[in-house]
């Protein structure tokens, strides 16, 4: 990925090519939101209500959060490659099993199992941090996640089209096939980058208090958690807003739903281009501020009674822009607090971020009821984005205090 590091594509004796890391991150994004336009139809198929079916998002995120607590330490101990390959195999099996789920309860349980695909996203970031110093790592993570931004941009549209043509089960079959493709590429290309091994798994878990005791770690972690929290609330509430408030079909919702990914790609491009020049803290502050600005403007439009599908989904581009600028930089900051614990920091930080996202996703689903419109969701997202800005400013202040000392 740089002239200093020899990388040969499909040669697992060298570090992985950037395209492989993009695929690992992208399959995680696909699994999260490709099926969302099908939620109303799946609700009818399983004979349940929307709030229960929406738990397929929250349970997936909760599974992500719990798994990340273990993925990081295990990869620090045994290496990135075996953990990623194991996670990919389980994901393929779970995706196929979702097609044959006889009840909503079994489907929801399989969504938790399917969440193991997050190992690819978590460890793609750890691989980058294995290879590069802090600011350059933020830049490279930005390029990786800029590439994966294509996935959430097209996934809802593809999912909506598959639903219209073949029904919701086709989405999970496509996920399984894509999982197989990525698994083959990872097997051929992903060389091990965690060349030094940490202590036992128990020793790794005992390192968590060291991370949790770091105020810098918490600053970066909460900046990422609140910024992404606005997006997870969107995942939980936007399908309802699109179908019930604006009367969209699954295919139309799929086209509109990917709006944040446009901003996400732009934000990651900015990160990749300017993080080394301006530093990660400046990028975090600007990203969180832009997200808050977009959401508060959208909320004001809704309170004035002027909101429609184009304004609601259009201002979600700012949410994606903020996520694209904050997440790679905050992640690099988290991983740089204790570089020897990069995998553990990625897992722990990700668990906190995704766990909060799962809670916000559930809350968004319960806030939206008949006659409420989009305002409750916009209130929730605006408050969350404001907290991300406060966390970002705290992180800058803490870093300056440490530098002065």
Provide an overview of this structure.
Helices cover 81% and strands 0% of the residues. By secondary structure, it is mostly helical. The chain has a single domain (18-404), classed as Up-down Bundle (Growth Hormone, Chain: A). It is globular and about 55 Å long. It starts with 17 loop residues before the first helix and ends with a helix.
Strand count, sense and barrel status of the largest sheet are:
none
| Residue share in β-strands | under 5%
| Number of separate domains | 1
* Structural class by secondary-structure content: mainly alpha
Radius of gyration: 20 Å
Assigned CATH superfamily: MFS general substrate transporter like domains
CA(first)-CA(last) distance: 35 Å
CATH class: Mainly Alpha
Q: The CATH topology is what?
A: Growth Hormone, Chain: A
pLDDT average, as an integer?
Answer: 83
Choose one word for the global shape: globular
Task: List SSEs in N-to-C order.
Answer: HHHHHHHHHHHHHHHHHHHH
In short:
The protein is mostly helical and 405 residues long. 81% of the residues lie in helices and 0% in strands.
Which keywords apply here?
405 residues, Growth Hormone, Chain: A, mainly alpha
SSE order and pairing:
Blueprint (H helix, E strand, L loop, with lengths): L17 H16 L5 H7 L4 H4 L1 H24 L1 H20 L4 H11 L3 H14 L2 H15 L1 H17 L2 H21 L11 H6 L1 H5 L2 H31 L4 H8 L1 H20 L1 H24 L5 H6 L1 H22 L4 H26 L7 H30 L1
Helix pairs in contact: 1-7, 1-8, 1-9, 1-10, 4-5, 4-6, 4-7, 4-19, 5-6, 5-7, 5-10, 7-8, 7-19, 8-15, 8-18, 9-14, 9-15, 13-18, 13-19, 13-20, 15-16, 15-18, 16-18, 16-20, 18-19
């Amino acid at each position: 990925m740089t002239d200093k590091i020899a990388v040969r594509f499909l040669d697992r004796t060298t570090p992985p090519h950037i395209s492989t890391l993009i695929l690992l991150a992208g399959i995680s994004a696909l699994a999260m939101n490709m099926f969302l336009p099908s939620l109303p139809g799946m609700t009818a198929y399983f004979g349940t209500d929307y709030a229960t079916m929406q738990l397929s998002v929250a349970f997936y995120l909760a599974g992500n959060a719990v798994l990340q607590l273990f993925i990081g330490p295990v990869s620090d101990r045994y290496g990135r490659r075996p953990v990623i390959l194991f996670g990919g195999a389980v994901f393929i099996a779970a995706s196929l099993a979702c097609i044959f789920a006889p009840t909503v309860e079994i489907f929801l349980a399989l969504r938790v199992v399917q969440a193991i695909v997050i190992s690819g996203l978590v460890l793609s970031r750890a691989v980058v941090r294995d290879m590069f110093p802090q600011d350059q790592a933020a830049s490279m993570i930005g390029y990786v996640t800029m590439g994966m931004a294509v996935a959430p941009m097209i996934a809802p549209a593809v999912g909506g089209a598959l639903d219209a043509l073949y029904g919701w089960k086709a989405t999970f079959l496509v996920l399984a096939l894509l999982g197989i493709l990525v698994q083959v590429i990872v097997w051929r290309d992903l060389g091990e980058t965690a060349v030094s091994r940490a202590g036992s798994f128990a020793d790794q878990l005992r390192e968590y208090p060291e991370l949790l005791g770091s105020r810098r770690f918490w600053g970066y972690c909460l900046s990422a958690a609140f910024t992404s929290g606005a997006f997870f609330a969107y995942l939980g509430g936007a399908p309802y807003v699109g179908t019930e408030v604006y009367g969209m079909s699954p295919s139309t919702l799929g086209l509109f739903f990917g709006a944040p990914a446009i901003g996400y790609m732009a934000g990651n491009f900015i990160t990749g281009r300017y993080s080394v020049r301006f530093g990660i803290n400046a990028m975090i502050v600007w990203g969180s501020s832009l997200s808050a600005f977009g959401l508060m403007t959208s909320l004001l439009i809704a309170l004035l009674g002027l909101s429609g599908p184009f304004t609601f989904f259009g201002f979600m581009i700012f949410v994606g822009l903020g996520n694209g600028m904050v997440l790679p930089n905050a992640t690099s900051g988290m991983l740089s607090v204790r570089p020897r614990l990069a995998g553990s920091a990625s897992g722990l930080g990700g668990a906190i971020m995704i766990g909060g996202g799962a809670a916000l996703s559930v809350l968004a689903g319960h806030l939206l009821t008949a006659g409420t419109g989009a305002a409750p969701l916009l209130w929730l997202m605006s408050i969350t984005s404001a907290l991300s800005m406060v966390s970002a400013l705290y992180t800058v202040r803490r870093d300056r205090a440490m530098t002065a000392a």
